[in-house]
Design a protein that fits this description.
Elements (H helix, E strand, L loop, with lengths): L3 E2 L4 H6 L8 H8 L3 H4 L3 E3 L6 E7 L4 H9 L1 H9 L4 E7 L4 H11 L6 H10 L1 H5 L4 H11 L4 H9 L1 H18 L3 E2 L1 E4 L2 E3 L4 H8 L5
Parallel strand pairs: 3-4
Antiparallel strand pairs: 1-5, 2-4, 3-6, 6-7
Helix pairs in contact: 2-10, 6-7, 6-9, 6-10, 6-11
């Protein structure tokens, strides 16, 4: 399966101009962000599951959207919801809008994180390719319970954005992640995309 390869340098992402002007009110909203909580691990499944699967993903990656539409529901039904596998989500943004969307998602309550990721990936074609991705993301944020001021604060908080980029850097340097989606199975990078791929990898592990 051909995946979307890395096409944007970290330096270019960091050097890009700010997308949203932050007013004084927004600055106060930024101060209210609990960075430790926002940058904490995000996962779904039993914390004591025998197997841990890590997904590095970008919210503007079409292959990530396809994985979550076709493979993820089957994995969740057979392995995650049954307590056999815990899936950990790790950000690997490929562009500015993936970075901003990742920040938005990390500002919703942790228990709702998998749901907003699902929405962002299912509606990827609508918001990522729209004439105004910012407004589209703000609408999604409102559906998740964030008002406009809070959503803008999340998407412009420098420390939050730096933390997300740090996740991408760690994935690249420590695990040789260079495309999305990429997966670690109990800490080891594996090649998989379809449900059948994961069935083969999990045979004998998640029993």
């Amino acid at each position: 399966m051909r995946r979307r390869t890395l096409n944007l340098a970290i330096g270019a992402m960091l050097a890009a101009p700010a997308l949203i002007a932050v007013s004084g009110g927004d600055a106060r909203a930024q101060e209210a962000i609990d960075l430790e909580k926002a940058l904490g691990p995000r996962s779904i499944g039993d914390a004591d599951a025998k197997v841990t699967l890590v997904e590095y993903f970008s919210l503007t990656c079409p292959h990530c959207a396809r994985f979550h539409a076709e493979t993820y529901p089957k994995l969740r039904e057979k392995y995650i919801d049954t307590g056999k596998v815990r899936l950990e989500f790790r950000d690997f943004p490929l562009d500015q809008w993936a970075l901003r969307a990742a920040a938005l998602a990390r500002c919703v309550p942790e228990k709702h994180y998998p749901a907003i990721i699902d929405v962002l990936l299912k509606q990827q074609a609508s918001w990522a390719r729209s004439d105004n991705p910012l407004e589209a993301l703000l609408r999604i944020g409102q559906l998740a319970g964030l008002n406009r001021q809070a959503a803008e604060a999340c998407m412009t908080n420098g420390k939050l954005l730096d933390g997300i980029i740090a996740s991408r850097l760690e994935g690249s340097k420590k695990h040789n992640v260079d495309s999305t989606p990429s997966f670690l199975l109990d800490g080891e990078k594996v090649r998989a995309f379809t449900f059948e791929d994961f069935e083969e990898l999990l045979a004998g592990r998640a029993t």
